[in-house]
């Protein structure tokens, strides 16, 4: 496990001085501590950022750095995803990203593309209903479109190669359905969530989300998140989400404004500052090693 002392110290200072609210540069950081559990009583821990300032989003796009994730037990999951959520009414959510979740794939621990959707009444934290087992997400069958459940290659290596996949979830202004695209070159439509899934109540996202997340049973320790290295290790070591954009209520791309941080268990799963650089645009690093105990 690696500690990056300076940043941890800074973070603690920030936290103690500003009561869980830390305003630095362009970002507004708020930590939502605490344990959450899914329906099976597994721990659910997330680290990342979200934006809910305008409460009128038509989606988001981000570049997701991909890593192979070791040590994920059959009933655990380690994921990274982007999501859109509507907090009016039942709290619907659509997610897309990459995960290792052996239980869904006959015990296999490859990194795979996944999509999911929920209303809060059917599953906890949007993770109950996964493609390809879950009905609802419609495949485009477009030539060259990746398919949810498919494995991801090549992967990044520590201090070595950097690989990523850019995804967007965007409301289709004509059909009003919510589409999932892969970018990186020509955009290819992976599929969509029909608006009827949500009884037409999902007209806007009130929140857009970029996160790493783990699920693990109480009798086990946590799987790793991201590259299994702490956020403050940075480039080529920690996992990142970069080139983060939001779509406004007219479907135009915008820079995210007033983002807020989430670190459910920050002694295990860290995020660094949400920041802008020419190379990575809006981005942050996140993650942590396996073996966290609750
Ligand atoms: C949509 O409405 C039907 C009928 O009222 C209901 O059974 C279903 O649970 C609703 N679905 C969602 C996602 O809210
Ligand atoms: C922990 O509990 C789950 C059921 O919740 C079970 O499937 C798993 O085998 C248990 N793990 C260990 C290490 O005993």
What would you note in describing this structure?
There is one protein chain. With 294 residues, this protein is mainly beta. It has one domain. It has 1 helix and 20 strands. The strands form 3 sheets. Strands 5, 10, 11, 12, 13, 15, 16, 18, 19 and 20 form a 10-stranded antiparallel beta sheet that branches. Strands 3, 4, 6, 7, 8, 9, 14 and 17 form an 8-stranded antiparallel beta sheet that branches. A two-stranded antiparallel ribbon has the order 1-2. The two termini are 17 Å apart. Residues 8-33 and 123-127 have low confidence and may be disordered. Bound molecules: 2-acetamido-2-deoxy-beta-D-glucopyranose (2 copies). This is NEP-interacting protein (DUF239). It comes from Rhynchospora pubera.
Gross morphology is globular
Through-space gap between termini:
17 Å
Mean pLDDT: 86
What kind of oligomer do you see?
Answer: single chain
Radius of gyration over C-alpha positions, nearest whole angstrom: 18 Å
What is the count of distinct domains? 1
β-strand amount: 35-45%
Order of helices and strands: HEEEEEEEEEEEEEEEEEEEE
| Small molecules bound | 2-acetamido-2-deoxy-beta-D-glucopyranose
- Helix fraction, binned, reads under 10%
Structural class determined from secondary elements: mainly beta
Give me the count of strands.
20
Protein name: NEP-interacting protein (DUF239)
Organism: Rhynchospora pubera
Domain Neprosin PEP catalytic: 37-293
Keywords: Signal
